[in-house]
Each structure stands twice: as structure tokens, then as C-alpha cells.
Amino acid sequence: xxxxxxxxxxxxxxxxxxxxxxxxxxxxxxxxxxxxxxxxxxxxxxxxxxxxxxxxxxxxxxxxxxxxxxxxxxxxxxxxxxxxxxxxxxxxxxxxxxxxxxxxxxxxxxxxxxxxxxxxxxxxxxxxxxxxxxxxxxxxxxxxxxxxxxxxxxxxxxxxxxxxxxxxxxxxxxxxxxxxxxxxxxxxxxxxxxxxxxxxxxxxxxxxxxxxxxxxxxxxxxxxxxxxxxxxxxxxxxxxxxxxxxxxxxxxxxxxxxxxxxxxxxxxxxxxxxxxxxxxxxxxxxxxxxxxxxxxxxxxxxxxxxxxxxxxxxxxxxxxxxxxxxxxxxxxxxxxxxxxxxxxxxxxxxxxxxxxxxxxxxxxxxxxxxxxxxxxxxxxxxxxxxxxxxxxxxxxxxxxxxxxxxxxxxxxxxxxxxxxxxxxxxxxxxxxxxxxxxxxxxxxxxxxxxxxxxxxx
Length: 457
Prior knowledge:
By secondary structure, this protein is of the alpha/beta class. The chain has 11 helices and 23 strands. It has helices spanning about 5-15, 90-95, 135-140, 165-180, 200-210, 230-245, 340-350, 370-380, 400-410, 420-430, 435-440, and strands at about 25-30, 30-40, 50-55, 60-65, 65-75, 110-115, 120-125, 130, 150-155, 190, 210, 215-220, 250-255, 265-270, 270-275, 285, 290-295, 300, 320, 330-335, 355-360, 380-385, 410. The chain has an 8-stranded mixed β-sheet with strand order 9-6-10-12-13-14-17-18, with helices on both faces. The longest helix is centred in the middle third of the chain and has 16 residues, at about 165-180. The chain is globular and about 75 Å long. The protein starts with a helix and ends in a 15-residue tail after the last helix.
């Protein structure tokens, strides 16, 4: 049935029942009673169901034919977005600053930069979907507990869902962060970001901004800020606690450690990955433990991190390295049974300068691709190998396939994640012109993209 017809049918039902979209209603059906807000059906929906947004934040569809009665409780509602909506976290969020925490009781000075994403979104009761709506100031003002942690300034870099983020946006964010650090005003910077590509951005900033004097913490949310099940407030509070209290600098990602609301994990920017579509504990450190666990207002650092490249805060702004450029012409190709090797030829045609191959196991692709790989290498394209396994490292000397790939010129990247390898190649090619320099930088540890040995919980 055409969408227009669907709309008309539902509108006739609403008119007959004296209700409209956005009204809070109570509906009695054959299966029980439900109360919630009427929201629109999505564009491909049928004409025989209405959609009700429940108090829990979830939507349900109700068959019109099973509705016994529908009664309006109140007129069209706007989204509820009040600072006291986080009162249930009162015990977790309790924080009292003392002279011991900060000299003369002075709060640290943080900056919250917004780039968009779910953490800056709320439910649009006109469409029933999530929309980007909150500015950095609104996000900060909505969480009164932040005022007990730091003096927070706010600013916007852009307003994009993270699937729309491109390498040029990484450059924009890096330049903005660098300029704010060089102002000398801040003890830490928080970057709010959509979760889908947050680990790409954290890797990008890790390479673009080196020898940082203060922590830069990227934070997001799996569920929009006005949902009762939102993780936005606690993630942001955890990020601010880390930025304010940790004695270490660098680029980090702060998200829920588990599905519970008791611990926030702070991950190294190049070692983190999103591993679940919707759970609050979607982000995990790969081959290492989370760098820090924030429990209430306490920042805990595992002992094993003394062996990794983690700098302490410092006041030498001149020593910060800012290289914010990225080259777009890099591909990430995932090998699979039946992989069309002509994809490599296509990368040559597109003028790509590097290819990240995500091979099986220790870093393998089938021999049918060898001629295409050799052609790419002969054309001056750099071929790097990662593994599609989440944990572990490449090793091209174990099997003859790997040894043959090495002879072709394929360069293994140990336990660098595929996403971080892609970003690093883009960064190297954007900042170095000599191929030898690119290879040297790609195979050397810059920002903990390699770990010398497995460090896990």
C-alpha cells in the first residue's frame, strides 16, 4: 500500500479518536493496556499499526484492529530533558572537591567540544527518530554534577553523525583541539562524538596530536541523552573526571565498562574498538586492558601500563607535535572466501597510494591475489597486512603463504587494528612524501598502535 495511503488511513483513525501525533494517550487492546506518546510510522510502514513511545524510551507497534479504546491523557508533549533526570545516579556522581584535590579549592578548567552524534541527540517527537539537537552548552548544562568536577567551557567544531565524518573532519577537529591547548587555558579537553566511527577519530587525533601536555578524551553515547536508559551523562562525567584528575596526557576514549552504571572505562585512542551495535559497553580495548577505570570520582590506573608509552602531564606547550593532515586515497580491503582480486586492480585505477589488507588469521590472502598485489607494488602502492581477528597479531613467517606475501612486498603491521592501520596510513601519506619515511613510520610505534606483548585483564 502506498505511503500516502498509509498516512491518510492513520490520520483518519487519529481524527476519529480525537488524538494527534505527540499526544500522551492510554490504549486498551486485546492484550492489555499501554500508555505512551503517539509518534509517526516510518516511511515504509504498513497502514494497520500505530506507534507508541513508552516511558522506557522504547517504541511498540499496535495493531489498529486490536484497539478497544484510545484516550488522550494530555496534549502534545515536548521531549523531557531536565537536569534532574539524572538524580538516580546521585550516589555514583557524588563528588566534593577539597584543597587536597585542587590547590586552594580551585576547580580544573576543561573544554567540552561537540562534534555531534547520539550524545548530542534527543528524540524528535515529530518523527519518532533521534535527531542531533543539543549544543555543547546544552549538553553541559543538562548535567549539573559536572559543576562539581570542573569549570567547563563549551564550543562546537561541527554537528555530524559519526558515519558522516571524513578525514577532513579529523583535520578540523585536530586543529581546533591544538589551538585550544596552545591557549594554555585548559587542564583537559573533552570531545563529544558519535560512536560508530569514534575509534577512527581517536586514532586520527592520536597521530595528529603527539606529546600532548594534557589529556584529550573522546566521549559518546549509545543512547540519546533524553532516554531513561541513556549512558550519555555517566560517560561524560567519567570523561570529565579522568580529564580533571588523571596525571597522564594523550588521547583516550571514555565509555561504559559494563552494562551497569558503576564503572566508566578510559581506553587508549589507538587500541579501542566498537564491538557491539547498541550495548552500553560496546567499546573494548584490544590486546590491552582499558587504560583507566573511573569508579565514582576515583581514577584507577592498572599497574601494567607503566610499560606502555603513556606520558604524564607537562607544561611544555612548544613540545606538542601537530600534524593534522590526512590523505584520502587509502583503501581497507577485507579478504574473504570468494574475494574478487580485481578490487586491488580497481584501487590502482583510482590512484590509491596504500592498501590495508585485512587478511585471515595470521595475515593471509589466497594465492589468486598475488599477481594483483605484485602489480600494485610495482605501481608504487604500499600494501600493509592486518588481521581480521580482533585479538592477536599478524605473523607472515609461519606459513608459506605469508612468506610469499613478504617476498611480494607486503608489510605486516603486528597487532595494529585494521581501523587504526587505515587511519595511520592516511596520516602518514598526508604528512610524509618519501616512501621510506612512510614505511618507517607505519612500522614504528607512535601512539601505542603496537603493543610489545599482550597486556590483558
